[in-house]
Amino acid sequence: MSNLNHWEGIGRLGQEIELRYLPNGDAVASLSLACDDSYKDKQTGQKVERTEWVRCVAFRQTAEFLAEWLRKGARLYAVGKLKTREYEKDGSKRYVTEIHLAQGTEIIDWPAKDAQPRQQAQQQQRQDAPRNGSRPQPSQQAAPPDYDSFDDDIPFAPAHYLTGV
Known about the structure:
By secondary structure, the protein is α+β, with helices and mostly antiparallel strands. Helix content is 16%, strand content 39%.
């Protein structure tokens, strides 16, 4: 009999993705997904809504790709395996369970067609900044993406973007 360790769900990014690099050069992205859940209270008959927070981790090209294109509030169809790791803090052992994202993870909320990835947008802002050393005024800074205006023609990432194949 084989074991099954598979998780999938749709959630919104609760904060910007944290991208870091391991000593061997591999990228690691940490993200938190807010997954909505609801049920009917048996005593009151009222619908009760709640949010479950799911920690996710992506590696290598998938990590870099997701960090480049996703922003807080964007929806992601996450697929992966549950992994629990142990660490020590203040002298006591602690555990955290995460979803290690795998092939099948797809971006639902793509930026608008004219949006640039984060790295290109930051480079453009630096180039557009005044040369006298002053910081750009808020009216000169690029506006954040409008997540309600995405193009529905391209709802998902092709699998090769997320798997590096």
